[in-house]
Every structure is written in C-alpha cells, then in structure tokens.
Specification:
Layout lengths: L55 H5 L8 E5 L3 H9 L4 E4 L3 H4 L11 H12 L6 E5 L9 H13 L5 E3 L7 H9 L4 E6 L5 H4 L9 H17 L3 E5 L3 H10 L4 E4 L7 E4 L1 H5 L16 H17 L12
Parallel strand pairs: 1-2, 1-8, 2-3, 3-4, 4-5, 5-6, 6-7, 7-8
Length: 316
C-alpha cells in the first residue's frame, strides 16, 4: 500500500492549532513498517508530557538531585500515549502483563515473543518518555549469550530504549556484557517476581538480616556492573533507604517506601481496573474498572432498548 503524504505543517508549528489527534511525527518502529508514532494533542488543552527526550543518561544524572522519577507500566499504544501526555518519565512494558493482561497467576508464562509484541505497540505511543521493557523468565537465566540475544530482540524488534532484568550478583555479568555492547540496563532486586516459587509467594523480602545482606550486595553488584537505575520491590523502607544511599544510580521503588529516587506502579492497580484487587503498596487514583463496567452495561441497555444508534449516529 502506498504511503499517504503527511499534511503540511502550519508555519508556526503550534501543535494546539492542529486537528484533534493530529500526529506530528511518523517513523518506522521495531519491525520497520511505517507507523504513526509521536505526539498527540488532546481536546482538553496542552499536553503535560515533557518535550525533551528522557534517556538512560538523563535519568542516571537525576540521582541525588531531588527530582523524583515517575514510572508506570503500559502494554499498548493507547495507555503508553496517555502516560506520556501526563508527564510520566518511564513507561515500563512489564512482564506483569502475564497477570494483568493475560490472567496468569504469575509472570512466568510470558514469552519473549509476547514482550516484543507489547513493546512494539507501546513504542508507538511514546516520543519523549523513556521506554523500558522487561526481559521475561528464562530469556536470560540460562546463559549470557541467551540474554544478549533476547535483549537485542527487545531493542531491535520491540523499539525498547532499555531492558530490565531481575537479579543481583548472579545477573552482574550479563549486565556488564549488555552495557558493553550499548544496551542500557535497569536492574531489579528485592522481591523479584520471576522467583516467586523460590520465595513461596509474592512475599516481602529483606526482613531477616541474611536476606537484607543478600539484597544489598546484589544492588551494589549490579550498580558496579553498569545499570543506570534499579527497581527495589517489596522490601522494608529502611533497607530501601540504605540501598538508595549506598548506590550511585537512581532507585525506583514499588512497595519500598518513600526514600527511593522514584516510584513505579502497575497501571491496573493505579487506575483501579480490577475492582477486587488492591495491593497494600498501591494507591488508586481512579476507579476505571467500575466505570468501564457501567459504560458497558449502559451500552448494552441502549442497544436492547433501541436507543442506540440514534439518527445522529447513523448515516443517510
């Protein structure tokens, strides 16, 4: 199919004067197919998304500056775009999609192909936010070479700006190799969901002195290996504060207290998309699950009563 030329830009390039949903940039992403990818101006005013590109380097430089890093998960173009418009720094395509999108009981069933697919979709929704993609279970644990190939696919095919992997000292060599070939790596220590069976469930880690020492040593090891940031998940706030003070890279907490350099939440928890699930460490900023259920019910009622479609919603 032949490409359609883009409409000419207005001379002053004021995005607020473009039609709703007008796209300012079109570029190939991931698989090389032409796709619409870039900033969108909504009908309710100027977008809040930052105009300067957020990178692994710029995030690393924010360590100790008091400027908290904001991250949220997204798994498709629509929510990635909304997160960027809201001014979120990091859009994380997490393997949490196995639980919140696919309905699995853990993240373990998620495949590399699935992560590439969701990464490619989310990449089309961001232009300035930093896109990080999880390396799924057993895509990197068997060997460094496996990990390098998996990370390469996420960058080349998925449009990722960086990859995230779980583990401490045991992951340091892979981190070192990935950074050496130009792939930015975000680490993840504490309650690492891919080790759920080792932990006996999604349980707080670092309560015992031995656990705390292991987690802290792992954080130092991956920092020395070259991660530009790391997630601290479900550990005591005091331990998270200790690690944050000890490592030279930003820490991003989830269930790790307020001393971290930033925070991340799963979008489904933040938005209340599952009315029956609310983890202790999350705060709901909306009740979209209930609102969506009501909208579906209202639509069904209108169809059955003959109220939809009306003349306004029909063609002559």
């Amino acid at each position: 199919m032949a490409r359609q030329p883009l409409p000419p830009m207005l001379p002053h390039r004021d995005p607020l004067r473009l039609p709703h949903r007008a796209l300012l940039l079109r570029t190939p992403v991931g698989d090389g197919r032409p796709c619409k990818f870039g900033r969108v101006v909504g009908r309710y005013g100027q977008m809040a998304a930052p105009t300067k590109k957020i990178t692994a380097v710029s995030l690393r430089e924010r360590k100790g500056q008091g400027d908290k890093i904001v991250a949220v998960t997204a798994y498709d173009v629509a929510f990635a775009r909304l997160a960027e418009r809201a001014g979120v720094d990091i859009v994380l395509v997490g393997d949490s999609l196995g639980m919140v999108v696919q309905g699995c009981s853990s993240t373990l069933p998620v495949t590399l192909d699935e992560m590439v697919y969701h990464s490619r979709a989310a990449a089309r929704g961001v232009s300035s936010a930093h896109l990080v993609v999880d390396m799924p279970f057993m895509s990197y644990q068997a060997s460094v070479e496996d990990g390098m190939r998996a990370a390469g696919r996420l960058m080349k095919e998925g449009g990722a700006h960086a990859v995230k992997l779980e583990g401490g000292e045991e992951a340091a060599e892979l981190v070192r190799r990935l950074v050496a070939v130009g792939i930015p790596v975000m680490g993840h220590v504490g309650m690492t969901p891919q080790s759920v069976h080792k932990f006996g469930g999604f349980k707080l880690q670092g309560r015992t002195e031995a656990q705390a020492r292991t987690i802290a040593a792992g954080a130092r090891a991956i920092a020395d290996a070259g991660v530009y940031a790391m997630v601290l998940e479900s550990i005591p706030a005091a331990l998270a504060a200790e690690i944050t003070a000890a490592v030279p890279v930003p820490t991003i907490g989830i269930g790790a207290g307020a001393s971290c350099d930033g925070q991340v939440l799963v979008m489904h928890d933040l938005l209340g998309l599952d009315p029956d699930w609310s983890p202790r460490f999350a705060r709901r900023y909306a009740e979209l699950g209930r609102a969506t259920e009501k909208a579906f019910a209202d639509y069904a009622a209108d169809v059955r009563a003959g109220r939809f479609p009306s003349k306004k919603e029909s063609f002559s």
